[in-house]
Every structure is written in structure tokens, then in C-alpha cells.
Specification:
The protein is mostly helical. It starts with a helix and ends in an 11-residue tail after the last helix. It is globular and about 55 Å long. The longest helix has 29 residues, at about 150-175. The protein has helices at about 1-25, 30-35, 40-60, 60-65, 70-95, 100, 105, 130-145, 150-175, 180-185. The chain is built from 10 helices and no strands. The mean pLDDT is about 90.
């Protein structure tokens, strides 16, 4: 069990920060990336992503040194959160295809007469950024299952990282969708659904 928890902690440690770095490189510079196109963007950002993943795997000392032991209550609580994140991911995938998940709409120049599609159905009718909420819930779940101090610090750091991405993504979405996004933003909360709303 200790090996499983350590591997899980290293996976969290080595994948979550690079994933956020990817979006921090995309959203503020979406106009530039659109001008160079998706392929060139991935050829630039992909190697950066892989180098960061490799560096974090190599520099896993803070994770392995911060093992807090197996705690079955935390493990099963984390498992429930992870299962909830899988259920949420299924709802998200009903609205998003792989290209959208990979950021292609942010990178691709629009063809003449092509209208962008605003996601405002399904889970997106309840929260504007369910992917970020999903990542947070899943990461907290994996962190609780792994029970390593370094991953708890990382999970706490997700709060400002997510909020920063929400701000950057919303600027880009307002540029892309204009008043339609402003209206959507006024109706639907960013991360936490309003109670009693369907």
C-alpha cells in the first residue's frame, strides 16, 4: 500500500503543475498562438510540458520525504472524491470533445463566417468552469488517498492557480464571444453551482 500511495503522490506532483502551466501559457497569449496555429503551438509548448513533468518526477524528494502513512479514513474519503470527479468528468465530456479539451478553439483562427460555439448547456448551465472544479475535486481525492504532505501543499496551491486561470480564461472568452459570454457570466456562477438551481 505504501508503494501505491507514493506512486499516486508522485503522479499528482508531476502532472498537476505542468497541466496548469500549459493553460497559463495558452490563455494570456491566445491571440499570438492563434496566429501561429495549433501545430506550432503544440510543438513549442509540448516539449516544455514534458521537460517540466520529467523534472518533477526526478525532483520527487519532497513527496517521498513527506509520507504521512496509510490512513484508511482519508483513503476512502479521497476515493469517494475521486469517484465524484469521474462522474463530473462524464458530464463535462458530454459537452466537450477532445479538441476542445486540448485547447484547439483557443489556438485556431476562425474561418470566415464561422461562429464560435459557447458552451452553456448541460453542466455548463450550472457552472462556467466545471473542468477546474473537477480537477480540484479529483486532485484533493488523490491527495487524500496518497496522504503525503507535499501533495497537500500542492492541493492548497491549486486554489489561487485555479482562480488565476478563471480570470485569464474569462478575458479570452469575452474577447471571443463578446456580449453572449457577458450574459452567460451574469447568469451562471464560475465554480460552485447555486443551491436549488437546475
Amino acid at each position: 500500500m505504501d508503494t501505491f500511495r507514493t506512486v499516486l503522490a508522485v503522479v499528482v506532483w508531476a502532472t498537476i503543475p505542468p497541466a496548469f502551466l500549459y493553460w497559463y501559457l495558452i490563455h494570456p497569449f491566445a491571440g499570438y498562438w492563434r496566429s501561429v496555429g495549433p501545430l506550432r503551438t503544440y510543438l513549442v509548448i509540448g516539449p516544455v510540458y514534458l521537460v517540466v513533468v520529467g523534472a518533477l518526477i526526478r525532483w520527487r524528494g519532497p513527496v517521498t520525504a513527506s509520507d504521512l502513512g496509510t490512513h484508511w479514513g482519508l483513503f476512502y474519503g479521497g476515493l469517494l472524491l475521486w469517484i465524484a470527479s469521474i462522474a463530473m468528468e462524464r458530464q463535462i465530456r458530454k459537452q466537450l470533445d477532445f479538441k476542445t479539451l486540448a485547447g484547439v478553439p483557443e489556438l485556431k483562427a476562425r474561418a470566415a463566417g464561422e461562429e464560435p460555439r459557447l458552451l452553456d448547456q448541460g453542466i455548463y448551465a450550472r457552472v462556467r468552469h466545471p473542468r477546474y472544479l473537477n480537477v480540484f475535486i479529483g486532485t484533493v481525492g488523490w491527495t487524500m488517498m496518497a496522504n503525503h504532505g507535499a501533495t497537500y501543499v500542492l492541493a492548497a496551491a491549486l486554489i489561487p492557480m485555479i482562480w488565476g486561470l478563471v480570470v485569464l480564461e474569462e478575458r479570452e472568452l469575452m474577447d471571443r464571444f463578446g456580449d453572449a459570454y457577458r450574459d452567460y457570466r451574469a447568469r451562471v456562477p464560475a465554480l460552485f453551482p447555486r443551491l436549488g438551481k437546475v
